[in-house]
Please model this.
Amino acid sequence: MELKLKKAGHDYYEGVAWPSFSCEIMRESIVPDSCADIARIVDTTGLVCLTGRELTSDGRFSASGTVDVSVLYIPEKGDGPCALRFQIPFQCSGEGQDAAEAEFLDIRGELQNIDTRVLNPRKVLTRANLTFFPSGCRHVSLSVCTDAGEADPSIQLLREKKETWVVAGVREKEFTFTEELPLSPGRGAATEVLSARYAIRGTDSKLIGNKLVVKGLISASVLYRENGGRLSVLQQDLPFSQILEGSGFSEDLDSTASYRLLSADCRVGAEGVPDDPHTLTVSMLMRARVTVRRREEIDFIADLYSTTADVTCETAELALREDSDRRSTRLNIRELLETGAAVKAVVDTEVGCGSVRQSGGPGELEIPLWARCLYLDENDALRCVRREFSAACEGEVPDGCRAEAEAACRGDIMASILPDGIELRFQVDCDMETARDNRYLCVAGGEANEAESRESGPSLILRKVGPEESLWSVAKQYRTTCHSILEVNEIAEESQLPHDRLLLIPRAR
Model:
C-alpha cells in the first residue's frame, strides 16, 4: 500500500556563476588634424562600458559595449603631453554551459591589459584583452514530504529542519549621474582632460516600505593638463543615491547592491558656463542591480518506518546552500615599482584588482593586482611604470565552503621615491561571501506491506547504544519508538542517553 505523505512547496531563486569567457579587440586610430604628431607614447588606459548582455538562442552568453581608450603621448611639437581619446566597440560571446534557464542575467567586464604602439606619427594600433564574468539566478521549485497523510500511530517520522539563504528577486535601474568638480584656487586653469577613471561601490542598501533605497560612492580620479603644460590630478569621492521599486518584498529581507558603468565622460567646463577652465564636469550612466535575499526554512522527512509493517522508502537528494557568511578583510600592501632611472616627481598613481581566485591550498585566496605610476625622470621627461603582482588572503575560507569574493583598492595610495624606483603603500579590501553546499537524503514516497509475524522474537532485549548510533536507528531496528525507549528506561530526553550501560528495548505492541 502506497504511503500518503503531505508535501510542501518552496519556490525561490539561487545564485549561479558561470565560467568566464575572453576576447581580444584591436583598432587602428588616426590622430586628428587638430592634434600634433606623436613622438612617443607614454601610457594607455581603458574603461570598460558594458551596455548589452544576453543569453542567445543557441545557448551562448553575449556581451557588447565599448572600451573608452585614452592614449597619453608626447607630441613632436607643442607644450606638454597630449591625449588621443577614442572608443573601441566590442561584441564577445562565450559558452552558456547549462544556462538555458538563467534569469536576472548579469555580466561583469574586466580589462586584462591594453597596449598601444605607433604605426606612424599619425596612426596608432591599440590592442586590448577583455574577460567577462557571467552570473545570474536559476529558478528552484521544491516539493518535499513533511508529514504522514493519515493519522497512523505506527508510522514513525524523523523530521529535519534546515535553513538556507535564497534569492527572493532582483531589481535593476539605469540612471544618470552628473557632478561639477571645482578646482581649488591653488590649481591652474584646466585646458584638457587627458584621462579619467572611476571606481563605483555601494555603501548601503535597504528596503523601506515598498521601495529599495541604495547609496554609494564614485571615486573619481581625473588627469588633466593646466595652462603651460603642467599635469595635475583631481581625486574626489562623489556620493549618490537611488530609489528602486521594491514591491513584493518585506522590510525584514536582506539586500545587496552592485553597479555597472554604461558610459562616462569628463570635460572641462560647467553646465552653465561651458568654457569655465576652473571646473570639471563628470557625467555617467550607470546600472544599479539590487539582489534581495531571504531565509527559507525547509522541513523534510529524513527517514520513516512503521512499528507494524515493512516499509520501502523512495529517497531524493535535497541540495541546500547553508552556513552563508559575509565578511570583509583589509590587507596592507607595500610594493616597489622599479623604474631603472632616477625619479624626480610622481605625477599619478593607480592600483587595480583583478578577479579573486582560489589558490593552492584550502582556505587560501589570491588577489591579482597591478599598479601604475606616471612620473617625471631626472630630465623632466614623462614616463610610466607598471607592475603586476598578487596578494594572498589566507585562512578566510572555512573547510568545505565555497567562496565568492571581490577586491578593491580603497583610500589613498602613498607613493615614496626611492633610489631604485617608487614604493607604493595602499590598502585592499576583500569582500567575501562563503557558503557550504550540503546535500541531504529525504523521503519522497514509500510503500507499506504487512510485516511477517514476530512471535518467535525475544520478549526482552537488553543492549547498549553505541557511540556512533542514534536513538532513532536503535528504535527503527527493533520496530519500537524513541519515546518508548526513553520512558521505560526513565530517561528524560535523548541528550541524556547513556552509552556505557545496558538499556531495555521494549517491543512495540
